[in-house]
């Protein structure tokens, strides 16, 4: 009778418990990493129909973001420019470049270019560009160094905690409104000095501009 | 005292006014309804899918979910910018354009919101000189009509689709033929409109084609105002009532706050005279003589119920009383007086009522107005004009505005021509005459005698010719046109979108028929404008389109007028010979419905599902009658026409619980109504409809609403749309030319059959609490009476022990108090019950603004309607002659919100500005919040109403037999999860009407009024954008208007920052009349109400010492609290001490809500 459960089974409950614990931890870690926007979104870099390089236009040539994304200061939506905006320059510059064939086709045949959307929020989130850029939140805070990207990718996770991080601590990110579209701008080359400047400015801005970045649900959900 | 007794006693602490006859009788069915949160079956799982089946199917769906792991990756979406950027367009920013919604007698000036090229919301244009920005329910709902999936979307010949070119060729053929014949044989039947361009093009056509004949027809005779005034004064004029300048108003069956065409305008002017200035209180007095219980009757201070056929006799008696007074017996009036004095007295009429009313009019000569309604004969209107003339009101409270003289014959003459085969070509512009023409004409058949028929119609409905052409009519939001508002101001009709289905306007068709070279509506309207504005002035035209009106174009009133007394006497004498209802004689009254009008809004789901303001019926009409009339018929009215065989049907239904689709034999339980069908006959004409008792209606009157009873035929052509199909019964077959408004001599018989109605009058009932607070004007202004503070004086006792708690009866410190100190605004709302007339405009505005779905008749019966605004209607007093009160009930945004405490997932929380938020993406649908809401204002999405056809809600995608086009619904859903199994055409169109700033809610989430949070946030963002690097972030008062507030023609709703003592809402809340509903619960609602003040005349026989609701409240042992005088000037948040000597005094005047200021700042 004593052979029914051999001796090694005495350790079985402990092993099961440990095993389950390890498995549970692995699942938890897996879910928190792989099932969150940090993994599912950051790095998303679809191929666009036209190989437009932000690096060349915004970075090297120094075009202001708002030359193309004209609605960003007026609307919740920061528009992708109409083809006519491209043709403002490209009817002179590189006017026969084969890489721009689609742009010319679009313009002359009045056929829109279908860009692939990269940054997208769920339908129940109502984000507004205009209120952020007019009140000293730079493009770079959410979109990263687009001026260094040849092909744009999703740089930040855009999760709710990502939004709240800034909404709960706006001092650390506010900058003078005229520097909003300057993605490479820093208070100082020395990070420590820069942080000092940032905190002073941030505190003043929050006080004087009456920044009350809401962390209530109504800020984004309607 | 046992438990049930104490429960009952608790119920009776407050007043007892009632919403339905069952409520009055406290019938067990009603009690069952009140005691449970939701009516029958609302919380029961009654799905035909068994648990076992469910598990089986769910495992299949889990499997699919596993396969669909790729779903974790977002689907690729495209951004499609313009190729060439249009000027002045910014994606994501709504644009507003001024336009006007044409009506039969004028237009409603509107501002239309356009989101990314599609019109989504219609609002009143408050810059128009004769508008306060208010609209009526129809204007609000008209946006949905644009996207009606059943509108005419094609050119059709013989009800078969053809190309547009073929249709245009047909028009050309007729035009060429008419040109050759000089118009002989061309007959045009048009609806009524006040459009200078249409008049101009019509005149052009008639000049070119002198043989052509123009006829006009409208099933509802709003033109009577113009006709009667023209008759009375011998000039083409129309009365324009300045109700705001009248101190006494006598309505002769004129529902000017309801069914009159210019109701939005008239409500605004009437409400202006009822707003009480706390410093110099003053208000108008309204007498109403009417057959039905209308909204005007509900607003009236004195109401006399007489059959519609006897109203002119009452009018004559009032006039006789006035004219026999030497002071008003003006020269020339003697003839009228003699006619009137000789006039027999009206039956069943209290002469004391009449003489006291006449005395009041005489005391207010020149400051009063008598107004007759569209449902009255010309005689009543002429008497009203005689009274206004004698009393010197003309030019003061009523202006006579010149209008173009009428042209054209009647539909009767047209039918005669058709029968005589004189009509070569018949052109029908708008309307639906085959459905709504007088029954004796049999117009539908007569139409077939025409050689050729072209019909310009919004639907392919009954009038779409079986032999001939149906051309799609453009909606006003996609048309160029013009109109004149009632005051004569010229307004443009501008398109917000190109015609969705290549629809044509009336003016274009007329111009094409006339063979004009220029037929583009834009050019036609411009030409008219230049003609009227004196020359080709481009800037004036641009200004006209921008402002939405042509400044200074209002008509100057005709001043030199003389009443043609012999015409009045002739009319009175003729009318005298007509029979009136009373005694054994009974009458039927045909009235335009509050929701579908004459049938033109029959396919509008928003309107169909909005409860009628009086009957609270949805999706149906009924034969309305008074309790006494119902008794005489042997109908058991005190049971409110609930099924007498209640138990029987209940047991029957047990055997077929799952049969939800059989409307006639549904599960009968609480809250359901199965009234008996009665037959109405006038000679050989008969109709049948369910009987419905309306307390307070005149006896011997049966009232039927027009516009229902349409069906859709198998080929889906030539009938109603999918929404209106099968709703109600058709009253038109009973209506003939000799009795278009009412007919005496109707015979009514019971049929024994029953029909189920969806009535919301008991939904969300709060029983036995002082919800409605009213007093009389004389008491309100009398400091001694203690009524100055009646609203707060009626506060209820708190539960024992609550008073001892700190912080005004809250057991815990309100976390909002700390948040509020830091907030920029504190939002609040005040609703003035003295101005509210219950017109439903707010409810429709909310529906349109907030993407509120409709649920269908069967779901309404279960109490699952989604409308965020519930307009509660209460009767009080004698069942035969009660008083009525309205209360708009929405989320109160309680500071100490009971809903928030019980949510297990924090899906409803507060923000710092005092909004009670509802976070749809967090909600898991426990419905605890709704259960715990004392105001019953939360709505639950039991189904995916936006993505499922309403007649197929119960058919779950998991059901293996749920197939569409041979494909399992679940498979189809997996392939395209963006839409449900709603028909493609409906889906594509209805998606366009949605407001992009508001989430469309899915199945399983709770929703409720948000104070239009999207508007609040938009205003705050706009202010912050403006502020930039500055601290100017406070939104100025008046910037934000909630949708209901914007639509309210009475300006009864104020919304704003209650921390700003200068804001309109703060000023209203500071008034003595301000009170909180269910104050004793200490929920501290942000929405408060201003008590209603009635202004009765002590000399009247029906004078009530106090309003019925107040009397009932007192009858339950309540009395107004002892006062510390007028206290509308006390500091914000100040509370009166509790006098411990009166510990048993139930009504100490403790103000619990700190309605006007931040806590702790005094």
Q: Main attributes?
A:
heterodimer, A: 222 residues, mainly alpha, 41% helix, extended, B: 1162 residues, alpha/beta, 7-stranded mixed β-sheet, 38 helices, globular, disordered N terminus, disordered C terminus
> Which percent range fits the helix content of chain A?
40-55%
Largest sheet of chain A: none
Report strand order across the widest sheet of chain B: 6-5-17-16-15-7-8
Backbone CA Rg of chain B: 30 Å
Sheet-strand content of chain B, in percent, reads: 15-25%
**What would the average pLDDT of chain B be, to the nearest integer?**
84
Total DSSP helices of chain B: 38
* Strand portion of chain A: under 5%
Give the low-pLDDT segments of chain A. Answer: none
- This entry's quaternary arrangement is heterodimer
The interface involving the most residues is between: A-B, 54 and 47 residues
The chain-level structural class of chain B is alpha/beta
Structural class of chain A: mainly alpha
Beta strand count of chain B: 42
* Count of helical stretches of chain A: 10
Taken in chain order, the helices and strands of chain A follow as HHHHHHEHHHH
Rg over C-alpha atoms of chain A, rounded to the nearest angstrom = 25 Å
Estimated helix fraction of chain B? 25-40%
Mean pLDDT of chain A: 91
Global morphology of chain A: extended
Separation, N- and C-terminal Cα atoms of chain B: 45 Å
């Amino acid at each position: 009778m004593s052979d029914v459960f051999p001796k090694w089974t005495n350790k079985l409950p402990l092993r099961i418990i440990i095993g389950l614990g390890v498995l549970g931890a692995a699942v938890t870690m897996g879910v928190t990493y792989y099932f969150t926007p940090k993994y599912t979104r950051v790095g998303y870099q679809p191929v666009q129909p036209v190989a437009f390089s932000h690096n060349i236009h915004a970075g090297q040539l120094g075009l202001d973001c708002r030359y193309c994304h004209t609605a960003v200061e007026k609307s919740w939506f920061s528009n992708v420019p109409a083809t006519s905006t491209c043709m403002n320059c490209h009817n002179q510059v590189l006017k026969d470049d084969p890489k721009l064939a689609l742009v010319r086709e679009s313009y002359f045949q009045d056929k829109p270019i279908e860009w692939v959307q990269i940054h997208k929020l769920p339908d129940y989130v109502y984000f507004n560009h205009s209120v952020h850029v007019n009140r000293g939140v730079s493009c770079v805070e959410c979109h990263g160094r687009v001026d260094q990207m040849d092909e744009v990718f999703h740089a930040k996770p855009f999760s709710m905690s990502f939004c709240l991080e800034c909404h709960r601590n706006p001092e650390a990110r506010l900058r003078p409104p005229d520097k909003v579209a300057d993605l490479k701008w820093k208070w100082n080359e020395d990070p420590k000095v820069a942080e000092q400047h940032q905190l002073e400015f941030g505190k003043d801005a929050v006080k004087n501009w009456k920044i009350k970045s809401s962390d209530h649900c109504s800020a984004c959900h309607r | 005292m046992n438990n049930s007794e104490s429960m009952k006693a608790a119920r009776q602490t407050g007043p007892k006014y009632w919403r339905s006859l069952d409520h009055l009788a406290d019938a067990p069915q009603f009690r069952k309804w009140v005691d449970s949160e939701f009516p029958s079956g609302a919380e029961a799982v009654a799905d035909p899918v068994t648990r076992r089946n469910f598990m089986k199917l769910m495992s299949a769906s889990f499997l699919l979910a596993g396969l669909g792991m790729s779903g974790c990756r977002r689907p690729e979406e495209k951004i499609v910018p313009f190729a060439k950027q249009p000027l002045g367009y910014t994606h994501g920013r709504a644009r507003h354009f001024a336009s006007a919604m044409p009506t039969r007698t004028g237009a409603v000036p509107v501002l239309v919101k356009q989101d990314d090229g599609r019109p989504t919301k219609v609002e009143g244009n408050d810059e128009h000189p004769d508008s306060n920005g208010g609209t009526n329910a129809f204007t609000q709902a008209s946006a949905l009509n644009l996207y009606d999936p059943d509108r005419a979307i094609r050119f059709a010949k013989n009800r078969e689709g053809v190309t547009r070119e073929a249709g245009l060729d047909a028009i050309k053929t007729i035009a060429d033929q008419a040109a050759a014949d000089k118009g002989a044989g061309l007959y045009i039947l048009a609806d009524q409109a006040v459009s200078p361009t249409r008049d101009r093009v019509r005149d052009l056509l008639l000049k070119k084609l002198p043989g052509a004949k123009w006829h006009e027809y409208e099933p509802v005779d709003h033109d009577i105002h113009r006709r009667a005034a023209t008759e009375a004064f011998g000039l083409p004029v129309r009365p324009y009532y300045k109700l705001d300048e009248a101190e006494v108003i006598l309505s002769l069956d004129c529902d000017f706050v309801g069914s009159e065409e210019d109701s939005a305008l008239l409500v605004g002017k009437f409400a202006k005279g009822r707003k009480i200035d706390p410093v110099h209180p003053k208000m108008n007095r309204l007498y109403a003589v009417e057959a039905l219980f209308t909204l005007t009757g509900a607003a009236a201070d004195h109401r006399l119920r007489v059959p519609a056929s006897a109203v002119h006799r009452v009018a004559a008696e009032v006039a006789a009383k006035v004219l026999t007074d030497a002071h008003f017996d003006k020269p020339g009036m003697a003839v009228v007086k003699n006619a009137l004095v000789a006039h027999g007295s009206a039956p069943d009429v209290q002469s004391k009522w009449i003489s006291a009313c006449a005395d009041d009019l005489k005391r207010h000569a020149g400051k009063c107005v008598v107004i007759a309604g569209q449902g009255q004969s010309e005689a009543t209107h002429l008497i009203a004009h005689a009274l206004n003339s004698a009393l010197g009101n003309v030019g003061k409270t009523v202006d006579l505005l010149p209008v173009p003289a009428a042209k054209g014959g009647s539909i009767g003459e047209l039918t005669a021509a058709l029968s005589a085969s004189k009509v070569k070509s018949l052109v029908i512009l708008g309307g639906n005459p085959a459905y709504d023409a007088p029954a004796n004409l049999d117009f539908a058949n007569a139409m077939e005698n025409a050689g050729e028929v072209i019909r310009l119609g919004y639907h392919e409905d009954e009038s779409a010719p079986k032999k001939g052409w149906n051309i799609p009519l453009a909606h006003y939001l996609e048309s160029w046109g013009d109109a004149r508002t009632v005051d004569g101001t010229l307004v443009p009709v501008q398109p917000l979108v190109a015609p969705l289905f290549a629809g044509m306007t009336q003016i274009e068709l007329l111009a094409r028929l006339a063979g004009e070279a220029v037929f583009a509506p834009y050019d036609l309207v411009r030409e008219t404008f230049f003609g009227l504005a004196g020359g080709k002035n481009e800037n004036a035209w641009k200004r006209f389109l921008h402002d939405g009106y042509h400044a200074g174009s209002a008509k100057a009133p005709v001043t030199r007028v003389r009443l043609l007394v012999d015409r009045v006497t002739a009319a009175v004498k003729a009318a005298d010979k007509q029979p009136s209802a009373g005694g054994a004689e009974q009458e039927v009254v045909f009235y335009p419905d509050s929701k579908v009008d004459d049938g033109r809004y029959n396919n509008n789901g928003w309107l169909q599902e909005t409860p009628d303001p009086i009957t609270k019926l949805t999706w149906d009409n009924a034969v309305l009658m008074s309790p006494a009339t119902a008794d005489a018929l042997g109908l058991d009215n005190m049971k409110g026409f609930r099924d007498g065989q209640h138990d029987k049907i209940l047991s029957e239904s047990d055997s077929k619980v799952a049969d939800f689709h059989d409307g006639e034999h549904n599960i009968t339980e609480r809250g359901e109504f199965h009234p008996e069908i009665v037959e109405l006959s006038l000679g050989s004409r008969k109709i049948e409809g369910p009987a419905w008792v309306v307390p307070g209606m005149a006896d011997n009157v049966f009232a039927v609403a027009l516009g229902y009873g349409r069906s859709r035929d198998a080929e889906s052509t030539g009938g109603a749309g999918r929404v209106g199909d099968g709703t109600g019964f058709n009253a038109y077959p009973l209506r003939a030319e000799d009795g278009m408004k009412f007919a005496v001599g109707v015979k009514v018989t019971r049929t024994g059959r029953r029909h189920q109605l969806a009535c919301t009058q008991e939904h969300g009932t709060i029983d036995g609490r002082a919800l409605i607070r009213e007093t009389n004007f004389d008491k309100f202004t009398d400091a001694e009476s203690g009524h100055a503070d009646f609203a707060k004086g009626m506060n209820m006792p708190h539960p024992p022990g609550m008073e001892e708690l700190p912080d005004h009866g809250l057991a815990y410190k309100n976390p909002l108090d700390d948040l509020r100190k830091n907030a920029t605004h504190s939002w609040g709302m005040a609703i003035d019950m003295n101005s509210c007339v219950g017109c439903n405009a707010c409810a429709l505005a909310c529906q349109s603004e907030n993407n509120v779905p409709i649920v269908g008749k069967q779901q309404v019966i279960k109490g699952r309607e989604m409308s965020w605004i519930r307009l509660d209607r209460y009767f009080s007093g004698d069942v035969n002659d009660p008083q009525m009160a309205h209360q708009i009930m929405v989320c109160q945004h309680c500071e100490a919100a009971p809903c928030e405490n019980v949510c297990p997932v924090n899906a409803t929380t507060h923000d710092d500005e005092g909004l009670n938020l509802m976070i749809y993406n967090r909600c898991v649908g426990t419905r605890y919040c709704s259960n715990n809401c004392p105001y019953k204002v939360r709505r639950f999405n039991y189904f995916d109403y936006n993505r499922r056809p309403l007649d197929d809600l119960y058919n779950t995608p998991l059901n293996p037999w749920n197939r569409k086009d041979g494909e399992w619904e679940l498979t189809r859903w997996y392939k395209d999860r963006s839409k449900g199994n709603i028909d493609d055409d409906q889906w594509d169109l209805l998606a366009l009407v949605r407001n992009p700033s508001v989430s469309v809610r899915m199945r399983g989430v709770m929703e409720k009024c948000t104070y239009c949070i999207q508007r609040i946030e938009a205003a705050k963002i706009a202010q912050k954008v403006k502020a930039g690097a500055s601290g100017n972030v406070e939104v100025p008062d008046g910037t934000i208007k909630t949708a209901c507030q914007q639509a309210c023609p009475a300006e009864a709703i104020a919304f704003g920052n209650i921390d700003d003592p200068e804001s309109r809402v703060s000023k209203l809340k500071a008034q003595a009349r301000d009170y909180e509903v269910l104050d004793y619960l200490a929920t501290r609602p942000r929405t408060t109400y201003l008590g209603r003040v009635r202004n009765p005349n002590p000399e009247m026989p029906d004078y009530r010492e106090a309003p019925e609701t107040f009397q009932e409240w007192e009858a339950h042992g309540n009395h107004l609290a002892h006062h510390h005088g007028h206290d509308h000037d006390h500091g914000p948040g100040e509370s009166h001490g509790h006098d411990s000597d009166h510990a048993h005094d139930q009504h100490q005047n403790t103000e619990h809500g700190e309605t006007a200021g931040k806590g702790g700042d005094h």
